[in-house]
Amino acid sequence: MRVVVLTGAGISAESGLSTFRDSGGLWEGHDPMQVATPEAYADDPGLVQRFYDERRAALPRVRPNAAHHALVRLEDALGDDLLVVTQNVDDLHERAGSRRVHHIHGRLRSAWCTTCDARHGWDGPLRHEPPCPTCEEATLRPDIVWFGEIPYGMDVVEQALWDCDLFVSIGTSGVVYPAAAFVHWARGATLELNLEPSAGATDFAESRHGPATRLVPAWVD
Ligand code: BJW
Asked: What does pTM read for this prediction?
């Protein structure tokens, strides 16, 4: 049985990481969605760096939860027949022990050189725009996919969805594309596990609603 699992911010919410649209809150007086754009970065790189610096600094303070751990048990059972595709830029799937994780929106702990295309592991703040260790140009930016940019590895994801027997969407509001369209690309059965019906809930063959730490282990086990 080939399974593709898509995860969003809701799977990390019970670990203590904020979702984007639930809080309705502002960060330093800005809507987080307005900060996650190339235009915001061009206008005020320091502001955008701070947004990601704070989220990167939060990672050591949070831990994977029961939903992340349940997906590891699923991978133990299915091996390479499970692909986790995450929109999240945190590292909680990897820290739980998941091995086949595809980050379509990038990763907080990676920096990208827009000049030479190198990627570098990154744990500290980016505020001072360190020179790229590969080409020595000062153009490192967060390795994050912002609006208008092309998500990573879409060829791999598209093929996996085309080949899968089951597509499961966990903890995502279903308003950001292309992830919101994956339910239409999937050839197999479809299941949504979310706190509440997402924007695309009616596109799934089945939807279950509640917290991920309850729904995901119940589904896996
Ligand atoms: C729980 C829970 C608990 C809470 N248990 N559940 C018009 C129409 C269609 C498309 C477009 C359009 N105009 C522009 C576009 C494209 C645009 C887009 O989708 N815009 C929409 C806003 C309309 N998309 C893009 O630009 C993308 N690129 C693109 O399309 O390129 C073209 C292309 C595609 C494919 C092939 C070739 C070319 C890029 C999108 C980049 C998104 N980036 C962000 C920020 C960067 C990462 C970061 O900073 O972390 O990614 S935006 C933000 O939204 C972030 C997230 O990954 C993403 C999705 O959010 P998510 O995860 O769903 O979080 P929330 O908060 O929205 O929802 C949480 C859910 O969890 C809720 O439902 C809760 O109920 C639930 N929940 N607690 C279970 N305990």
From this structure: 0.96
